[in-house]
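To assess whether ligand presence alters the predicted conformation, the chain was also submitted together with adenosine-5'-diphosphate. Input:
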Amino acid sequence: MLGAMQDWTMRITHVIDHAAREAGMREIVTRWADGSETRTNWAGIRADALKMAQALQALGLRKGDKVASLAMNHSRHLVSWYGVAGMGGVLHTVNPRLFDDQLEYIVNHAEDKVLCYDAAFQPIVDRMKERWTTVEHYICYDSGEHSPAFEDWIGEHDGDFEWVTGAETDPCMICYTSGTTGNPKGVQYEHRSTLMHALAGLQPAAFNFSSASCMLPVVPMFHAASWGLPYAGAMAGIKFVFSAVNDPAVLHDLMIREKVTDSAGVPTVWLAHFQYCDKEGIDLPPLKAATIGGSACPRFMIERLMKNGTRVQHAWGMTETSPIGTVGGPTWDWDELSFEEKVDKTAMQGRPVFGVELRIVDLDDMMTELPRDGKTSGALQIRGPWIIKRYLKAEQDAANQDGWFDTGDVGIIHPDGTLQLTDRTKDVIKSGGEWISSVELENAAVGHSGVAEAACVGMPHPKWDERPVLFVVKGEGSDVTKEDILKHLEPQIAKWWMPDAIEFVDEIPHTATGKISKKDLRDRFADYKLEG
Ligand code: ADP
């Protein structure tokens, strides 16, 4: 027997319809690369998305066709998120920081037919055009010097269009992981998974939006669906402020002028903002909440933001998880905690939002489930309706038959459900049969004022199998010594975790998404020898 409620297909066109209807006047502000600013609102975004859907159909695109975007954060990019899905298409948000071979691979692999790009990325388009074999049309989000301009292109249509309907499980977006080894892998989000993920983002324990929220997302729209913010924000009818450039001076000015309450970005973005404020001798912007994720948020960052009156939402996730897995925010016992305890808790990766399940398993057999005791660490697995089942065009599932997807992360789960990431399975250091967290060592090291960046790698050791070696980039003008760093580490970590060596380097290699690339570091120091 069936229940007796109405049919309502979970498609993301509902999201933009709702935003336009219930928060139609709420503003969407864009600060463009050339310094100009424009204002539209949710009703305007929907009206343009309808026109874009018509324009795509006029080019001959049909349901299931792929449209690529090569763009920073701005209102026309937002229009594309809804316009492409509204015509039944799939938006492939391309990361412009990828290397040429990766750019070639992903656009051809996704079979993108149209590519919408920022004028700032014209050099990439010029370089790659010959290599992108499936792209038939190029549209420029800014001027129309080399390709039709987006506004002119959609402006030829009247917006009198019915959203294309279909199944909840139709795809609506593709994001590729940057892939530290081999080719990037495509993760294909569905209407249903996207909608449910956005709802999860609305939980008070996650983004905690109200209709009064004003969000400036620094996390790019091309990275892991911008953490679902453009969808969750539409559901809550919040104001968005977008900046097509990531210069801290520009972001700071926008945050003050537009009365921004919320922002989201990786730790390096916040670091750049701190440095800017220190240089100018000004206060941090009075944000209510800062979502920080993508890599571990260091303690000093949490402390400084909390002292600024900003709630820190430390989130963990990955492209394969849409990306929200866990988010940290005030817990039930928050008022009873000291400031230090609050910082300690926030430095962990938060608790799972409703909808996803986490577990840790034995690193040796990758099967045996381990206790959630706040002490035992293991390989982190996740399952849920917005977690990957299979990579685009892959022959085998990425998740096992029970839905558990192996994240490649290593962590501890506390009895209250808080996740504490300790490493990546590839980077954790095995010394004399015991595990050492390279990440904890790095975090402790960057707490020294003379250390700009640190990366810890396990190096082969004749007696212990592996021992930690810490690579350090000194801060500008710093004369920090190896002894200083060891002294700084001593009270923070177990004795047997102390690095066997500290090596000063000019720079530490990074991936296209700005994370430390330990693979490159290991390659660079392939002949490194530790004494027995
Ligand atoms: P990439 O394209 O660089 O793989 P992802 O965003 O998919 O980008 O990377 C996901 C990985 O980033 C996670 O598996 C984890 O290792 C790391 N990560 C994400 N958030 C956090 C966090 N809050 N703390 C520590 N590591 C994190």
